[in-house]
Write a structure and sequence with these properties.
alpha/beta; seven-stranded mixed sheet; 8 helices; 7 strands
């Protein structure tokens, strides 16, 4: 039996029991967590950046946080923001099960864009967006502000379940994702970007 390349890449790195349990809780809550393939890519990216300070917009069940923390330097801190207390509590359970030191993460439960506006300028190595696509226009501006030069902004689930590439799909979330992609791609004075077909799509933008 021939396995298609996408399925192969998604199964190339298997998730441990802690991630699998967190993912199962996420399914029960109805959140869209990072896929194993995309999580492994984000771990690798955090490692390449020697990431010390990372922001995750959209905590989900904590699966994404577990992947990213594995790639960060050991003294690094992940700030994960979500508007739902249930998500934050579930992520905290996963992080504690993984024996991640509490000093290595901050879980903030508040309207996500309100929190992002309070983050320090040029203080972060990596920002991962996994939240309401309709906030992306504002999030792109804020990510550029808080990232250091050479830091990376990632939009997870950029394909929108396959809708973004179909111009006939015009629902607000799909349009917001499509417009965000155009904004980043055409802002050559601010970003260098690429689109990675792993998971449901990762749009990467490095701050110039």
């Amino acid at each position: 039996m021939i396995i298609d390349p996408h399925s192969y890449s998604e199964s190339f790195h298997l998730e441990n029991e802690v991630k699998a349990s967190a993912r199962s809780r996420g399914v029960e809550m109805g959140v869209q967590d990072v896929t194993p393939g995309a999580g492994a890519y984000l771990k690798h990216l955090a490692h390449i950046l020697s990431a010390q300070s990372v922001v995750e917009i959209g905590t989900g069940s904590g699966v994404g946080a577990l992947w990213v923390l594995e790639g960060m330097i050991h003294s690094g801190t992940l700030t994960s923001i979500d508007s739902e207390m249930e998500h934050s509590n579930t992520a905290k359970q996963a992080l504690l099960e993984a024996q991640i030191a509490p000093a290595r993460f901050r879980l903030i439960t508040n309207p996500v864009m309100d929190v992002v506006t309070k983050l320090t300028d040029r203080a972060y190595d990596l920002v991962v967006f996994r939240d309401n696509p309709e906030d992306l226009s504002f999030a792109i501006t804020q990510a550029h502000r808080i990232l250091r030069s050479g830091g990376v902004f990632v939009i997870d689930n950029f394909f929108g379940g396959g809708k973004v590439s179909d111009p006939a799909q015009r629902d607000p979330k799909t349009v917001a994702l499509r417009e965000a992609g155009k904004s980043i791609k055409n802002a050559g004075e601010n970003w260098v970007s690429s689109l990675i077909p792993v998971g449901d799509g990762l749009l990467l933008a490095t701050k110039l």
